[in-house]
Write a structure and sequence with these properties.
Number of domains: 1
Bound molecules: zinc ion
CATH class: Alpha Beta
Radius of gyration: 20 Å
Order of helices and strands: EEEEEEHEHEHEHEHEHEHEHEHEHHHEEE
Largest sheet: 8 strands, mixed
């Protein structure tokens, strides 16, 4: 039994002071004066559903020197997460049902977070042939994506949309027109020109999203834009939704907090696809997260070892880790709206990914997947639970931190000294 004492429960109607008792994997009592078992002092903290990330890379199978399901799960728990969707760009690609099942099994053995893997849209993520969608669905897949690459062929994508639409699944796209981004290392703009580095234009993302929205409108599928990074993409999503297209979107913390000027010193840590964009893009993405045009915050947690990242910007692999800093960065743009904070971090992503026991507003009798978030805790990350440490926030003071995570009624992470 765990008692959360003295915290503030966040529910759709707002915030109320409450104590929670957790027993046998469920929330037993919500009320003042509950006690028993292990007691956590939650004074000054917000309590809500455990966070859910619809976009992580756990590198298992295939690249476990960067991360594996165990270290990725530990990073997730430390970041306040109780549910994650690992992307299909593993080796081999997650394009068959048995591969999904073995990841889920390994996740259960580790027991720190619920895994609901994404399935590849195409065979081997090669883009030329739609994969065994129905088999993946049977194995529990709800989000289909070739993340890491765009599905370039309209015919292939349309067939996938029709088949996934029939099942009620989600087609998620890493939007990048590869013919425009080949050889690029950062956003194409004033900074890339200054440095003489080949860039990735904003249009490379927007062209793919615009095309996909036409196909989504025609097929009626649920279509999801992964890691939105430009103001143009925000406008496209907004316009399509107002016309009734079933479109959702996610944004990564780095895309609403850091811009391309951070690459002036050619720091390879700042390299990712999509790249850090202009301050105007950053403001547009942050605004869209705040107003709900972008309903899910997703990290694109992409571990690479320091050996791999300790090279020139041009040679560095793309991507940063994000699970352990996501809530702090999200809080920096949502601190005036705790209900929206939990909606973007837990409720909306859980619905999108088809989780049943995740992202549910806390109530007596409900599943005990819970995070305790201290909005005033100032901390400086020095070492992450992730096997890789490629984070732009290493050594940077942050405000707001998950101080306890409870998954299936069990404490999976706790910050001792506060
Ligand atoms: Zn991606």
């Amino acid at each position: 039994m765990i008692t959360l004492r003295g915290g503030m429960l966040v529910i759709p109607g707002g915030i109320r002071r409450a104590d929670l008792t957790i027993e046998d994997g469920h929330i037993a009592i919500i009320g003042a004066g509950s006690s028993g078992g292990k007691v956590l002092d939650c004074s000054g903290c917000l309590i809500g559903p455990g966070f859910v990330d619809v976009h992580v890379h756990f590198r298992e199978p295939g690249q476990t020197w960067k991360e594996d399901i165990e270290t990725g799960s530990r990073a997730a728990a430390a970041g306040g997460f109780t549910g994650v969707v690992p992307m299909a760009n593993t080796d081999p690609a997650t394009d068959r049902g048995h591969l999904v099942e073995s990841m889920v099994r390994r996740g259960r053995e580790v027991g720190l977070v619920e895994l609901r893997p994404a399935g590849a849209l195409t065979v081997g993520r090669r883009g030329d042939e739609v994969g065994p969608i129905e088999e993946l669905w049977e194995a529990g897949v709800r989000i289909f994506s070739d993340d890491g690459d765009s599905v370039a062929g309209s015919d292939v994508l349309e067939e996938a949309m029709i088949r996934i639409g029939k099942l009620g699944g989600v087609v998620a796209q890493h939007a990048e027109e590869a013919t425009m981004t080949a050889g690029g290392h950062m956003h194409e703009g004033v900074v890339s020109a200054e440095l003489g580095i080949r860039g990735l234009p904003a249009e490379a993302e927007e062209r793919v999203v615009a095309r996909d929205l036409v196909l989504a409108a025609r097929t009626g599928v649920r279509y999801h834009v992964q890691h939105v990074s430009t103001s143009g993409t925000v406008s496209l999503v907004r316009a399509a939704r107002s016309k009734g297209v079933l479109v959702t979107a996610e944004a990564a913390p780095h895309h609403f907090s850091l811009d391309h000027r951070r690459l002036r010193d050619r720091n390879p840590i700042m390299k990712m696809y999509p790249p850090l964009r202009t301050p105007e893009d950053v403001a547009a993405v942050a605004g869209a997260v705040r107003d709900g045009t972008i309903e899910a915050i997703a990290t694109d947690h992409a571990p690479h070892t320091s050996m791999e990242k300790d090279v020139t910007l041009e040679d560095a692999p793309r991507g940063i880790i994000g699970l352990e800093t996501s809530a702090s960065i999200a809080w920096s743009i949502l601190e005036d709206d705790p209900v929206a904070f939990f909606q973007r971090m837990a409720v909306a992503p859980a619905r999108l990914a088809g989780f049943i026991d995740q992202g549910r507003w806390l109530e007596a009798g409900g599943p005990a997947n819970v995070v305790v978030f201290d909005p005033d805790h100032v901390w400086t990350p020095e070492r992450f639970e992730s096997r890789s440490q490629n984070s732009p926030w290493l050594g940077t003071p942050l405000r707001g931190r998950p101080v306890a995570t409870i998954f299936n009624g069990r404490l999976t992470s706790e910050v001792g000294e506060r």
